Structure formats: structure tokens, C-alpha cells
């Protein structure tokens, strides 16, 4: 079958203005809980988009680790490409592609680095192997083979064989402070329901967008 013949209708449900919470974080938390109950694969996986110094966009999937009125939190190597691009340009976007629910959430905002206290609190909760992997990987840098990566992992594993694994000084959390959040619900005949919350001085405005 030709790829331009691949299509389906989005018929699961509709989204009405009356369905929406006044606060987009509350609405996000509701949809996230529904995604978890729907048994969606990796419901906290989100596409993070950044822009490099040459104004070229980059995308990758990271995992949401906290959400509150302060924003959306993820963690990464602070020497990685994404972290360096955030340092140069903090304007980012997040995207949750929940295809099985005919839903998408798109977020625009600014990213800021978390403090050591908050980063450490999460790092200590990670599985020990993940903590060691953070030390073993110079994220985004070239490496000749996977064998070399495993060797580096084993080296770090031996280094921290006794006691707790310390927080690397090159590993940190980032919080995306939202400026707009769009909720998309697929609709029949491509007449999708789209609502965008936009931040203002007193709170949030809500508008329906054409599909």
C-alpha cells in the first residue's frame, strides 16, 4: 500500500470547552492520569525541541519526571547537545504524542536549569545502574563501539562499588516553564478539537483553534 493511502478516522471521543479545567496544568495532569489508566506505552515520554546556534532545530525524546504549576521537569547530562542548546537559547517546545488515545499535547516555554538540591533529590531515587550510566556516558559525544561504552560502564561500576554513587557535576535537571499549552483531540473527517491555553499577567486565556 502506498503511504499516501494510509489513513484512519479519529473517533474515540470529542473535546468541548466545558471539559477543560481553568488551569492547563490541572488539565494536563488529568490527561496524563487517563493515559496511564489507558495503559499507554511510555505516557511520560515527550519530544523536546531545541534550537542550536545556527538556528537549526533538534528533537529527541526525554522523560517527564515532575509536573507542577512551576513547569515540566526532565533530567540529562548538562554537557549534552540539548543542554548546550538550552544554554544558548532557552526557548523550547515539548510534545506528547498519545496516538492510541487520538491525543496530542504541545507546550511552548522556556527551560531553566534546576538547583543541585532538587537534582540530587531525584538522582538518589534512580536505579543504581542508571546512576552509574550517567557517569559512564559523555552524552552526544562520538564513540567507536558499544564495547567501549560497556567498558566505561564497568569501570565506573568498579569505581563506585562501595557506598553511594555521587551526583556527577555534569548532570542536572531542567524545568520548562510553559507560556502556552495546546490540547488536541482527534475528530472525524479531520475536524479535530484543539484548545490552547496562553499565559498572561493574571493567569491563562483559553481559545479554540481551527483544525
UniProtKB/TrEMBL annotation:
Instruction: Supply the enzyme class, top level.
Output: oxidoreductase
Going by the entry's taxonomy, the superkingdom of the source organism is recorded as Bacteria
Residues the record lists as binding FMN: 60-65, 75-76, 82, 104, 139-140, 184, 194
Pathway assignment reads: Cofactor metabolism; pyridoxal 5'-phosphate salvage; pyridoxal 5'-phosphate from pyridoxine 5'-phosphate: step 1/1; Cofactor metabolism; pyridoxal 5'-phosphate salvage; pyridoxal 5'-phosphate from pyridoxamine 5'-phosphate: step 1/1
Q: Which residues form the signal peptide?
A: none
Q: Which residues form the Pyridoxamine 5'-phosphate oxidase N-terminal domain?
A: 33-157
**Pfam families from the xrefs?**
PNP_phzG_C, PNPOx_N
Q: What is this protein called?
A: Pyridoxine/pyridoxamine 5'-phosphate oxidase
Q: Which organism is it from?
A: Kangiella profundi
Lineage here is:
Bacteria, Pseudomonadati, Pseudomonadota, Gammaproteobacteria, Kangiellales
